[in-house]
């Protein structure tokens, strides 16, 4: 009987501990998501970062300027870098844009969210966005008609 | 798009046409449709408050044919941009008061440009219109001379007042800018008409097989080369047949006296130091949106020897060709791209875009036929406008 009670106590302790760990983990995850929410957009991930971007207007027109908004979150407690460099190029043509976009922190939307102006794709075909955030390099391809 | 392909195939199957429509694949169809509709949409230039203003267009037209803007009263804008020569001069290199290094670009359809001049040193048509007035080898004028003309000629002063809502400015520089803006308003009104290509393109878009038959078979084959293996439409893009940017196409850029024409590299440097650019005090664009290109344009080493991709509408009327007028005919231009030496291309990416096409004699002829189908002749005449006196 005592053995059974001990066993129940042991199970209860295990369950409480598991619940505590699970709760803490869950809290951490929810906390991380809350601390670094990503706006809707195209998701690009590297080992240390997850990034979301969108263009304004959403459909890129050859020969017309557009704006790029993006936000990123560090993964695995990686330290976010404030050294940001953005570019785009056509891999098949081995050339980039004729314009240099800027990066302006989008302060009203919170930290880690940015707006970049000055983009223009001057040819139809496959373009690759390149996001360099410190040592991290994320890229995403898009076809423009 | 599939519907269009199907229509093209059905027409092909019908087989009773004078010009059997070719079978274009999906990528070719998309590329063809991007060259229209024509005329393309356009909105007035926000940096020029009289853009689209009929009185400014009238003032600009008078100034365009006004020899008193030049130093000795000998040269007018129309000296190099003659309407009956496709709004250019048919010379290899332009000649005002003296010969310059570059070929004259037509001002027809100039309103669709992003940058102006072979090197894109102008970011607005009004600033570009002031440049030859001040250039010693072209018109050799000055701000003071332009201002005195605008203030001193009663008709011009009256038109200025009606266009701008005030008499000509007292400051010479502001008066010169007004001259540039009126000239721009006039040139923006010069748009080429519809061509046999436009009729074919629109018929293709709506699947109208009987209208498609009117387009010559050789022009269709040339079009297929243009959007296909020729890769021409990558740069000669959109309704104007230009992506508005700059490329090195293997045309030598050495000039007389042992110098070189820096092309786009020099153009960006001139643009950035020009007080009449969109970032300067004379732009009327209050929100500064139109200055995005000027703010963000990037000066790169590869820009050296790059020249503007000219639009191809009415191209048959604008010989000779290339930035230095070195190629006399469209057949010469096609031969240039057919036999192009990649060694002459200094920019890395250009050699991937531009490869010698090695066209057969028939293919070359077809491509010329297509280019000629981009031409109409009515826009070589001045538009009819009421010519009553301003103060009448």
Explain this structure to me?
The complex is a heterodimer of chains A (145) and B (392). In chain A, a hairpin with a 4-residue loop joins strand 4 and strand 5 (95-96). Chain A has 2 domains: 1-35; 38-144, Immunoglobulin-like (Sandwich). By secondary structure, chain A is α+β, with helices and mostly antiparallel strands. The N and C termini of chain A lie far apart (77 Å). Chain A has one helix at residues 2-35, and strands at 42-45, 49-56, 66-74, 84-90, 95-96, 104-105, 113-119, 125-133, 136-144. Chain B has a domain at 54-191: Cytochrome Bc1 Complex, Chain D, domain 2, CATH 1.10.760.10. Chain B has helices spanning 2-14, 26-33, 54-64, 77-80, 125-134, 143-152, 154-164, 172-188, 196-206, 209-212, 217-227, 264-272, 292-296, 330-338, 350-353, 361-372, and strands at 246-247, 307-308. Residues 6-17 of chain B have low confidence and may be disordered. At the A-B interface, loops of A face helix 13 and helix 15 of B.
């Amino acid at each position: 009987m005592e053995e059974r009670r001990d066993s129940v106590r042991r199970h209860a302790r295990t369950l409480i501990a598991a619940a505590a760990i699970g709760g803490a983990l869950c809290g951490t995850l929810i906390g991380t998501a809350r601390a670094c929410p990503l706006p809707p957009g195209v998701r690009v991930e590297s080992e240390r970062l997850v990034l979301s971007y969108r263009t304004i207007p959403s459909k890129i027109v050859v020969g017309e300027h557009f704006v790029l908004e993006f936000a990123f979150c560090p993964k695995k407690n990686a330290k976010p870098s404030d050294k940001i460099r953005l570019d785009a190029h056509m891999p098949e043509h081995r050339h980039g844009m004729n314009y240099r976009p800027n990066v302006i922190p989008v302060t009203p939307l919170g930290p880690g969210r940015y707006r970049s102006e000055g983009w223009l794709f001057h040819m139809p075909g496959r373009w690759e966005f390149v996001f360099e955030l410190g040592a991290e390099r994320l890229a995403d391809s898009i076809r423009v008609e | 798009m599939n519907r269009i392909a199907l229509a093209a195939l059905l027409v092909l199957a019908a087989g009773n046409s004078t010009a059997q429509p070719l079978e274009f694949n999906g990528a070719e169809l998309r590329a063809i449709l991007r060259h229209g509709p024509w005329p393309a949409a356009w909105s007035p230039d926000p940096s020029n408050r009289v853009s689209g203003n009929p009185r400014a267009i009238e003032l600009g037209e008078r100034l365009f044919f006004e020899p008193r803007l030049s130093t000795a009263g000998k040269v007018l804008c129309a000296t190099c941009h003659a309407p009956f020569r496709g709004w250019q001069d048919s010379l290899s290199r332009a000649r005002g008061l003296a010969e310059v290094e570059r070929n004259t670009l037509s001002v027809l359809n100039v309103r669709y440009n992003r940058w102006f001049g072979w090197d894109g040193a102008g970011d607005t048509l009004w600033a570009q219109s002031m440049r030859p007035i001040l250039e010693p080898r072209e018109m050799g004028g000055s701000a003071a001379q332009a201002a005195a003309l605008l203030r001193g000629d009663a008709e011009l002063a009256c038109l200025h007042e009606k266009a701008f809502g005030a008499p000509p400015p007292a400051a010479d520089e502001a008066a010169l800018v007004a001259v540039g803006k009126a000239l721009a308003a006039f040139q923006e009104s010069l748009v080429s008409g519809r061509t046999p290509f436009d009729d074919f393109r629109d018929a293709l878009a709506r699947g109208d097989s009987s209208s498609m038959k009117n387009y010559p078979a050789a022009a269709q084959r040339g079009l297929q080369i243009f959007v296909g293996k020729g890769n021409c439409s990558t740069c000669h893009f959109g309704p104007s047949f230009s992506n508005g940017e700059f490329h090195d196409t293997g045309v030598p850029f050495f000039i007389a006296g042992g110098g070189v024409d820096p092309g786009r590299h020099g153009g960006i440097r001139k643009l950035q130091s020009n007080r009449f650019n969109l970032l300067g005090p004379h732009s009327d664009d209050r929100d500064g949106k139109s200055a995005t290109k000027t703010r963000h344009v990037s000066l790169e080493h590869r820009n050296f020897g790059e020249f503007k991709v000219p639009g191809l509408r009415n191209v048959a009327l604008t010989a000779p060709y290339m930035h230095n007028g070195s190629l006399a005919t469209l057949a010469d231009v096609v031969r240039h791209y057919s036999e192009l030496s990649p060694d002459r291309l200094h920019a890395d990416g250009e050699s991937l875009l531009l490869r010698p096409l090695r066209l057969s004699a028939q293919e070359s002829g077809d491509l010329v036929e297509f280019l000629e189908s981009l031409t109409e002749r009515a826009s070589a005449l001045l538009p009819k406008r009421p010519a009553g006196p301003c103060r009448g």
